[in-house]
Design brief:
single chain; alpha/beta; Rossmann fold; D-Maltodextrin-Binding Protein, domain 2; 4 domains; 6-stranded mixed β-sheet; 16% strand
């Protein structure tokens, strides 16, 4: 399967540049005869050669031009332009947003609703209007270039595209290959000549969300630089929203921000623990080092950087990297373990050092590969090195002077290596836990204790309401423990499932919530108490303070109408409503019924004493009767024959010894009692009756205008009338299983309606008297309810699945449901009618003793006769 995936990815990577060039060619007609033999064509490159990306891309493009001109029979002429780009500031600069909603509203007011083009404020330094646009115009008008490469930012790329779009009709429209990682989705529709030559950042954003989901975190503070493209921030919003994650706080910074400590102090006071940094490398380093001084890094904190920071790791010295220890990041991936890259790397380092001797680090990074591959796309050469795969992201963790890496591939998950021609058997997982020892060998923040500290709450405990009057104590049992000074104890199946779920959530641990009894019997009132700002003055309601509950853990059914008050987890029990009725007897017709009069022990002892008596008779009579002599096998058969034939006949006339006659007489009396008892018991069982339901359908209840029962305080009364259509039915509510049983046995009610989990408990207690009808009505099942402001519902559902898949849920069901003792079990005809050894032990002792006495006397007589003969 992995080989197939790799083949698909390889074909996609190979054919993508062809498709992009074909699209641009069809749109402009400028490359239909591109690079004919012997012709000279110009390629324009506009880069900020004062930046590291611009320097790397320039050197890599020059190397690609050299390679092409040496191998091909035509000449490419390179026209380089230095944009000397300056930082720009967007309209959101200088503002802080404590509420994500406020940020989003302000953000979208700066985006035109039709073109979605970001509008900059009047103080924006539109440097490209004076220099960048002029450079593009010169390349088109004077040098007649067939293609333009460059622009590492969207601001640069859009300015070039505007110039190309305004090209005069008598000029060929060049293809523009942008090196900007983020562009608005409408750019390629607006400008057909526009080709994004590098992978988009969307995969990196998805990788960030995958990391957060894998470690159970759904809320993040976004810190971004205001010069970032508006489309990037917009895409962040969409990705987080689509995956159920949430940007709970947004902190915009300018590249010249001087009060980082003050701005971080705000999020520290709000106990923010997880940060996503989308800034330039310089600002990101300053930010992280400031956070380190404020003790906001390391144990209990998680900082995730985007590739705007991590893609520069190769270009800085080890001391800078070590200052970022503990930072996690998503980094642009390209294959480095290939012969082609090694060859390219040697030539790049020589040329880069020659052109930029002031640079300390000469290693080529993703910027070099992007420039190199972009030029290859222009000349339609798809051999070496391979284009960057846009669906794989490198995940790094800075540790010491370097960093550890694992990988994440769209649609496949996390892996220790990237699947390629070398690593064909790469295994993938959707949980980073499975490969965490590679990424975090020392586990600086990933350890269990540290993960607990990644809490995003303010420290306020959840108030969890539990029903104090649950029908079944197996679900929720609230009582005062006299041995603990009348301390209120809350336990039961529901409570243990809730605690197991909270334990798995990695967000709420022991002592982060309080279980509070709710003494009103109405479950609807319990649901209305969630997030209520009104004090409930019920007579027995205690400990409600000034607000209601944050959650409810009880045998609460998920209903559509209850979503008005709260959100529910997925059901953790079987869903359905069942009808339970008394049973009536019917004739039994079991194939092995003839064995049931005796217990297993009785059968074994009867057979043993019978064979023993037969042996004694044979031993005494064999010297007087030649028919009892013969080979060993013959004599064994004779012993068995004598044993069982004496059950039906005395055979005293054929016996020669009074000892054997004495043994047979006693055994025949015992056998008579046993056979008569067996016959009587079997007759009783053959005429006994099997239990079948008295009512088999809801229609029968309707036709008989029967009275039915349901749990006091539950929704069943409304369900019977609104869903099952019992318009004239009479219902009775009960508060205990014993009351249910009494009412059914006395025929005060004809049937009861219970949900599947409750039905299991009831039938476990009354296993012989009542039965399901086989009809199940669809309802939501039991679920935990949380207030609408609860931020971790998706984590709760994931934790519930973990509890179920780890067999913990099955163990709790067995503990509280299956292990119930059947209180009416003694009425079973099967067990009550069985005859056992305890009823006949005196008779067995009598016959066994008689035969033993006869045997002893026979042995004594035989010994005396033997002595007299001697």
């Amino acid at each position: 399967m992995h080989n197939v995936n790799y083949l698909i990815l390889s074909l996609f990577a190979f054919s993508l540049p062809c498709f992009l060039l074909l699209q641009a060619t069809l749109a402009t007609g400028s490359l239909t005869t591109c690079l004919k033999a012997g012709n000279e064509y110009g390629v324009g490159v506009i880069l900020d050669q004062t930046s590291r990306p611009g320097k790397e891309a320039k050197v890599a493009i020059e190397l690609a031009i050299q390679e092409f001109n040496m191998k091909a029979n035509q000449s490419l002429v390179l026209y380089l332009k230095n944009s000397r780009n300056k930082p720009v500031h967007a309209t959101l600069a200088g503002k802080q947003f404590t509420s994500f909603t406020n940020f989003e509203n302000e953000f979208y007011t700066n985006i035109n609703s039709t073109t979605r083009k970001y509008s900059f404020s009047s103080n924006v330094a539109c440097y490209w209007l004076n220099l960048g646009m002029h450079a593009a115009k010169e390349l088109i008008d004077e040098h007649k270039v067939k293609a333009i490469l460059g622009a590492h930012t969207w601001e640069e790329a859009s300015a070039i595209a505007e110039v190309i779009a305004d090209t005069k009709p008598d000029h060929d429209i060049p293809v523009f290959l942008s090196l900007a990682g983020t562009i608005p989705p409408q750019a390629t529709d607006q400008w057909p000549f526009f080709i994004q030559a590098v992978p988009t950042q969307s995969t990196q954003m998805n990788a960030v969300v995958a990391i957060l989901h894998s470690i159970g975190i759904g809320q993040v503070t976004l810190i971004y630089e205001t010069s970032s493209s508006a489309s990037t921030i917009s895409h962040f919003i969409q990705v987080f929203r689509q995956t159920g994650s949430e940007l709970t706080h947004v902190l915009p910074l300018t590249s010249t921000s001087s009060s980082l400590d003050e701005e971080l102090e705000v999020v520290k006071r709000q106990q923010r623990k997880v940060f996503l940094i989308h800034t330039s490398f310089e600002l990101g380093v300053r930010l992280f080092q400031t956070a380190k001084k404020m003790n906001m890094t390391g144990d209990g904190y998680l900082w995730i950087a985007t590739n705007g920071i991590t893609d520069y790791f190769h270009s800085v010295n080890s001391s800078v990297i070590s200052s970022l220890k503990g930072m996690v990041g998503v980094k642009s991936y390209f294959p480095e373990n290939t012969w082609e890259f090694s060859h390219f790397k040697k030539r790049f380092r020589r040329m880069f050092h020659s052109n930029y001797p002031e640079e300390e680090e000469e290693e080529p990074g993703v910027f070099a590969m992007q420039g190199y591959n972009a030029l290859k796309m222009v000349v339609e050469n798809f051999h070496e090195p391979k284009p960057i795969l846009g669906n794989t992201v490198e995940i790094v963790n800075v540790n010491g002077k370097g960093y550890h890496s694992v990988y994440w591939t769209e649609g496949l998950g996390f892996s220790e290596t990237v699947q390629n021609e070398i690593n064909r058997e790469t295994s993938y997982t959707h949980s980073i836990d499975n490969i965490g020892h590679v990424l975090w060998p020392a586990q600086p923040w990933y350890a269990t204790r540290s993960r607990r500290n990644l809490l995003e709450s303010s420290g306020k405990k959840l108030r969890v309401g539990v029903p104090a009057h649950s029908l079944f104590n197996q679900f929720v049992h609230v009582y005062n423990d006299d041995e603990k000074n009348s301390e209120t104890v809350i336990k039961g199946f529901v409570v243990e499932v809730f605690e197991a779920m909270m334990l798995k959530m990695n967000l709420l641990r022991d002592r982060d919530y309080d279980l509070i009894p709710f003494y009103d019997r109405s479950y609807d009132a319990l649901m209305r108490a969630i997030d209520s700002e009104v004090r409930y003055f019920f007579f027995l309601l205690v400990d409600m303070n000034e607000h209601g509950f944050d959650a409810v853990a009880g045998d609460v059914t998920i209903l559509e109408e209850r979503y008005e008050f709260a959100n529910f987890t997925q059901p953790y029990t079987e869903s359905g409503l069942e009808m339970i009725v008394p049973v009536k007897p019917s004739i039994s017709n079991e194939s092995w019924l003839f064995l049931k009069p005796f217990s297993t022990t009785m059968w074994l002892i009867t057979a043993s004493i019978t064979i023993y008596n037969g042996f004694v008779i044979w031993l005494i009579e064999r010297n007087h009767n030649k028919d009892l002599q013969g080979t060993i096998i013959t004599q064994i058969v004779i012993v068995i024959w004598l044993a069982f034939s004496t059950l039906f006949t005395l055979r005293g006339d054929k016996m020669h010894s009074n000892l054997s006659r004495m043994s047979v007489v006693v055994w025949l009396f015992v056998a008579l009692v046993i056979t008569e008892s067996y016959t009587a018991s079997l007759t009783s069982m053959l005429t006994a009756q099997r239990l079948e339901p008295t009512i088999t359908s809801v229609e029968m209840l309707r036709n008989r205008n029967a009275i039915v029962g349901y749990c006091n305080g539950s929704f069943v009364d409304r369900y019977l009338q609104n869903v099952l259509g019992f318009t004239n039915i009479t219902t009775q509510s009960y508060n205990s299983t014993h009351e249910y049983a009494e009412a059914l046995n006395s025929r005060k009610i004809e049937a009861i309606f219970l949900e599947v989990p409750a039905a299991k408990v009831f039938l476990a207690q009354y296993c012989k008297s009542f039965k399901r009808t086989g009809e199940t009505f669809k309802v939501g099942g039991f679920g935990f309810a949380f207030s609408r402001s609860f931020e971790h519902l998706s984590n709760a559902n994931k934790a519930l699945m973990n509890v179920a898949e780890s067999k913990k849920l099955k163990e709790l069901e067995d503990k509280y449901f299956i292990s119930e003792e059947c209180v009416d079990e003694e009425s079973s005809p099967d067990k009550a009618g069985k005859l056992n050894f305890h009823s006949f032990w005196v008779l067995f002792l009598l016959t066994g003793g008689t035969s033993t006495v006869a045997l002893v006397i026979y042995i004594i007589i035989s010994i005396k006769e033997l002595k007299n003969q001697n």
